[in-house]
Design goal:
The complex is a heterodimer of chains A (104) and B (280).
Chain A lengths: L1 H45 L5 H15 L3 H28 L7
Chain B lengths: L1 H21 L4 H15 L17 H10 L6 H12 L25 E3 L4 E3 L1 H11 L10 H12 L14 H15 L9 H5 L6 E2 L2 E2 L12 E3 L4 E3 L1 H11 L10 H12 L10 E3 L1
Helix pairs in contact in B: 1-7, 4-6, 7-10
The chains are: A mainly alpha (104), B mainly alpha (280).
């Protein structure tokens, strides 16, 4: 019985250490996801083609992180990065594609 | 000595590159094609009537507008603009001192290309440059005072045809070309260009709005928009357009917006100034 109790305590301790590690990794993951999104949005800004939705997703990510809701924060940051990348693609492809709309 | 030789070589290369880039640009041919496109698309619209935007394309809207013009919603702004224009600055000078013809009947000549700065100078920018040259703070490009001042200046030019000049300067042709590129470039989450609405779909409805043709689109500026509940400048209109396609707007009077205004005004050369205007 004493051995079972000891094993249970060890399990609980292991689980709490695991949870703490998970939370820490979530914050680090958020920081990485946000940095990637922010860098992409900066590039879109350099190309003068930022989107309102990207800015909103970045703001949402920051707000969620401030509330320590890292799952939501990471998801919003990833959405922001995806949007920023599409806006970069748009700006890059339009460098030639705009000509197709021109009146001749 | 070697430093100066390298600097001179870089400068010469940069000028040559700019001249080369500007070589294939032909604004006069563009303007002809632009006009012909709209004339073909709307054969029943008289050329000068394109300066009246959606009212030239929609009979119901035109009737409502003609009734509204008896007591136009921009009238208060016009009076304010006249008063602001005539009020001396702290140094005793006024806006009139900054413009040819004392600023009366000259709206059709803006934007202009300034050879000294190598940039496009819009009327809104010229008004703020005038203020700053006389020790006054610049006013907001999207605010009521700027709308009122430009409304008054447009009113004094009513009926005068747009007369935008592109001097024989590669920088001017490039500014025009940059404006054209901005006009046709898709942007924002909706993937719309200015041309998507104002070349491909003028006369069509976008929700409750009837889209105006790009030809003559700036002739009625500034405008009172019922949607806004007040007057709006060209800067405000460009910023709103970019937001409407879910793009982050550029700063008012950025190079891009100034070049866009240069392009749009140039291709409407010959069409009369009809501002200030009103829109739903």
């Amino acid at each position: 019985m004493r051995n079972v109790s000891k094993a249970l305590w060890s399990l609980v301790s292991l689980l709490s250490i695991g949870n703490a590690a998970l939370a820490a990794s979530s914050e680090a993951d958020f920081r990485a996801a946000y940095a990637a999104a922010d860098a992409a949005e900066h590039e879109a800004g350099r190309l003068r083609n930022q989107w309102i939705a990207t800015e909103a997703a970045l703001a949402e990510a920051k707000k969620a992180a401030d509330n320590r809701d890292f799952d939501r924060a990471i998801s919003a940051a990833k959405e922001a990065e995806a949007l920023a990348k599409v806006s970069i693609f748009q700006a890059t492809s339009e460098k030639a594609a705009w000509k197709h709309l021109e009146i001749h | 000595m070697r430093f100066w030789l390298i600097t001179l070589a870089v400068l010469a290369l940069s000028i040559a590159h700019r001249a080369g880039a500007a070589e294939g640009i032909d604004p006069a041919t563009d303007a002809r094609a632009f006009r012909e496109y709209f004339v073909r698309k709307f054969p029943n619209v008289k050329l000068d009537d394109f300066a009246n935007g959606p009212y030239a394309l929609n009979e119901d809207m035109r009737r409502q507008w003609e009734e509204k013009e008896q007591f136009p919603p921009y009238e208060f702004s016009l009076e304010t603009g006249k008063e602001l224009f005539g009020t001396p600055f702290a140094n005793g000078k006024s806006y009139a001192d900054c413009f040819p013809e004392q600023g009366i009947g000259i709206r059709q000549n803006y934007p202009q290309f300034d050879e000294k700065s190598g940039k496009v100078i819009t009327l809104e920018l010229a008004l703020n440059l005038c203020r700053e040259a006389n020790g006054e703070k610049a006013i907001s490009y999207t605010g009521d005072d700027m709308a009122a001042l430009t409304a008054y200046m447009a009113f004094t030019s009513r009926g005068k045809p747009f007369d935008i000049k592109i001097p024989d300067d590669p920088r001017a042709r490039e500014a025009y070309e940059d404006g054209k590129r901005y006009f046709y470039t898709r942007r924002g989450q909706l993937n719309f260009s200015c041309a998507t609405c104002h070349v491909q779909n003028p006369g069509e409805r976008l929700r409750a709005e009837v889209l105006a043709p790009a030809l003559g689109i700036l002739n009625a500026m500034p405008i009172y928009r019922s949607e806004w509940g007040n007057m709006g400048t060209i800067s405000r209109r460009f910023i709103t357009c970019n937001s409407q396609v879910r793009g982050v707007p550029l700063e008012a009077q950025s190079d891009e917006y100034r070049d866009l205004e240069y392009f749009l005004s140039y291709v409407s050369n010959g069409l009369p100034i009809s501002g200030p205007g009103s829109r739903p």
